[in-house]
Each structure stands twice: as C-alpha cells, then as structure tokens.
Amino acid sequence: MAKKNAFYAQSGGVTAVINASACGVIETARQHKNKIGKVYAGRNGIIGALTEDLIDTSKETAKNIAALRHTPGGAFGSCRYKLKGIEENRAQYERLIDVFKAHDIGYFFYNGGGDSQDTSHKVSQIADELGYPITCVGIPKTVDNDLPITDNCPGFGSVAKYVAVSTREAAYDVASMSKTSTKVFVMEVMGRHAGWIAASSGLAVEQEGDAPHIILFPEIAFDKDKFLKKVNNTIKKYDYCVIVVSEGVRYKDGRFLSDSGTTDAFGHAQLGGVAPLLANMIKDESGHKFHWAVADYLQRSARHIASKTDVEQAYALGKAAVEMALKGKNAVMPTIVRKSNKPYRWKIGEAALADVANVEKMMPKNFITRDGFGITDSCREYLAPLIKGEDYPPFKNGLPQYARMKNIAVKKKLKAKFDI
After folding, report:
1. N or C: which end of the chain has fewer CB within 10 A?
2. Which CATH number fits domain 156-303+371-387: 3.40.50.460, 3.40.50.300, 3.40.50.720, 3.30.1490.100?
3. Which of 144, 146, 151, 391 does the annotation list as catalytic?
4. What's the pLDDT score for residue 1?
5. pLDDT score for 262
6. Which 3-state string (H, E, C) describes the chain?
7. Does the pTM of the predicted model rise above 0.85?
8. Cα-based distances in Å from 246 to 199, 208, 215, 249, 349
9. 1.10.3720.10, 1.10.3210.10, 3.40.50.450, 3.40.50.1980: which CATH number matches 4-142+305-358+390-400?
10. So what's the pLDDT on residue 129?
11. What is the pLDDT of residue 260?
12. In the chain, which residues fall in CATH 3.40.50.450?
C-alpha cells in the first residue's frame, strides 16, 4: 500500500497540553516516513479541512515541533464547529472527502472532546459510505474531564493543578485580611455539567479548616438556604470562607444559576458570572465583605505550572493515535487506563468512537461528601496522581518561551470554494 498523508486538527477549547498531543502525532509520524507522507494540520480545526486551508507541518524544524510539548494554546488554531448529521448536510462530508482525495490524505486525527469525537466518528462513517479509504482516530482532550471510558482526559490534570494551587494561595491571602477586611472569596471555575475541575480545588485541603470550605458541583442541586447557612457557620468557625464554584451549578429545576440566555457554536448554554452572583447573595444576606474571581482562560492556559503527568499522557495519546492508525485500527480513540494508585501506574487503552461520541462522564456520587460541599477520600485518591510533577517550560528574561509556528499553507488544488 502506497503511503498516504495525514490530517491532524485541534477542536474545541484548547488546553495547556493539547500541543503536546500534536507533538506526539507529528514526531511519531515522522518516525514512520515509509508509511506516512506529510502531516497536514487543519487551520482552525475541521474548518481548515472544509475550506482546504491546510498547514504543512513538514516545513517546521524538529526543534520547533519538539517545543510544542511545552507550548499552551492551539498551535494550528482550534474551532467550535460541529458537523451536522450526515443526511442533514451531506455536502459537508462530500467536501471533506474531496479535500482528502486532492491531498492524498489517508489518516484523520482529530484532537478534542465529546463533540470532536462525534466528528471523527461521522467522518469514518461517511468515508466508508463513499468508498474512500481513510483511517480515523480520535485523540482525547478536554479540561472538563468528562469523556467516558478513559480514566482521565489530557488537559484536566493541568487545570486541576492550577485550580488547587490558586485556591491554596488565595486562601492564605484572605486568611491574612479576614479580621478587618474580606471575609468571603469566591472562585468560579469551568465545568458545564461535570464538577471535576471544582473538585480538584479540594486537593488544597491538608487539615481541618483549610480552604476551600465550600465546593459547589453541577451534580448537586443548589439550595440557597443550605448554602448561606454553611457560609455563615464557616465564618463563625474560621473567620473567613473560601468557595469554589463550577460555572454549571444548577437549581433543582435544572436551570443554571449563571445562564446568560445565549448559546455557543455547539448549542450549549453560554455560562459565566456565577461567582459575583453568589458573592452578592452572601452580601445581601449577611453583609460580609467579599472578593470574587473567574479563573476562565487562565486555568486552561497555565502551561507554566502544568502537571508533568498530564504532559506525559497528552504526548503518549498523540503517539498512540498514530500507532493505532498504522495498525489499521479505525474509528477508535486511545484511552488512559489506570493500573494502580499507589504507586500511580497507567497504560494506553482503546475505545470505539461510537461509545465515546457525545457521552459525558459525571462525578460519581461517592466522590462528593454527604453534605454536598466537599470531596471524599476516594475522590482525593483519584485526583491526586493527576496533578503530580512539574514540567516547566524554558524561561528567558523571567518569562516562559513558547514555540512560534510558521504555519505555512499547503497550495490549494480544488477550484470550488466552500462557505462555512
């Protein structure tokens, strides 16, 4: 079989380690030049494939590709763009196949979360239906840690580390000033339906009284009276209260506390602003002085304090994706399988894309304390290994140095254009 080129793209919200997966894909492909030609990256995810806007990664030096391992963001651009159903918009899929044919692409690697794995699955289906031989392998990525089957998701460990560290450091600040100033600090973190990121803040607790004192999860219905009572009791006991809240916290009837009434490109409710909402709720009830913060992009881009475990796993999954494709495995996604906690050991597994696409993994009930405001020892045992180790980027003049890609475009071959 003649060697074919590969297509790689990044999708959805980027992370501190998604480029480590890209590094794993490209470096591994270069080691198999007898089977894989060039690796073309889609500029801005799947949109790059639809518009025939491809990047020739062979124009990048080995040194620059290696530097992707310690570079945050998405080196080739990402997107929030969900392909519609095959029958609903067949033209999209036929366009993808036309681009793949024109550029002799026989491997498709899509790096993203649940919606992205759905895209990979759909591409494998339409390729089979249209009789075009292309091997599709999804590469897991999501800070939300909500993909099924895999033990954890690349990107999550580093966000968890950032949130745990930030919670601990902010708590020291608040505790110093609580006597005459701020009594309440609220930090809002990502997590639409699953509370994994909020839960990670619980790793900051070492002994009784340590922050966070309250964690609010999407999995637990918000009870205003119960919440305010917990805040007041905490302040009476410790003189201050640190709260970490997931953006996806809901009322009992399912409404998000912070639903703005708009949706994103994937059709998800646009969230944000639950921290000031809670802070003002506390002030109105008790008058306590407060401060709040929204971790937002900071939590997912903080490569300077990334988890070494996370970096290693992100790279390994990119590498495994190529190796699986070369073995002829199609419509699959490499996964992380936990072998043991102490010592922490893991290996690469495999899942069918059909079992991963559009399925969310919530926190188990036994990971949340009975009062609904904290994490259990079981949760701590699961989370702790994922933030272990430091993998600092190189620094120069006090600042981290990251890769700057050339991102040289591949010459277009199709006359017809495609509008997004």
Report:
1. N
2. 3.40.50.460
3. 144
4. 56
5. 47
6. CCCEEEEEEECCCCCCCHHHHHHHHHHHHHCCCCCEEEEEEECCCHHHHHCCCEEEHHHCCHHHHHHHHHCCCCCCCCCCCCCCCCCCCHHHHHHHHHHHHHCCEEEEEEEECHHHHHHHHHHHHHHHHCCCCCEEEEEECCCCCCCCCCCCCCCHHHHHHHHHHHHHHHHHHHHHHCCCCCCEEEEEECCCCCCHHHHHHHHHCCCCCCCCCEEECCCCCCCHHHHHHHHHHHHHHHCCEEEEEECCCECCCCCECCCCCCECCCCCECCCCHHHHHHHHHHHHHCCCEEEEECHHHHHHCHHHCEHHHHHHHHHHHHHHHHHHHCCCCCEEEEEEEEECCCCEEEEEEEEHHHHCCCCCCCCHHHECCCCCCECHHHHHHHHHHHCCECCCCEECCEECCCCCCCCECCCCCCCCCCC
7. yes
8. 9, 23, 8, 6, 30
9. 3.40.50.450
10. 87
11. 54
12. 4-142+305-358+390-400
Question: What pLDDT, on the 0 to 100 scale, is given for residue 73?
Answer: 98
Q: Where in the chain is the domain with CATH 3.40.50.460?
A: 156-303+371-387
Q: Whose structure tokens read 């071959």? A: 413
Rounded to whole angstroms, how far apart are CA atoms 193 and 2?
A: 45
**CA dihedral for 139, 347, 363, 195, sign (positive or negative):** negative
Q: Are 233 and 196 in contact (CB under 8 A)?
A: no
Catalytic status, residue 377: no
Q: Which regions of the chain are under pLDDT 50?
A: 262
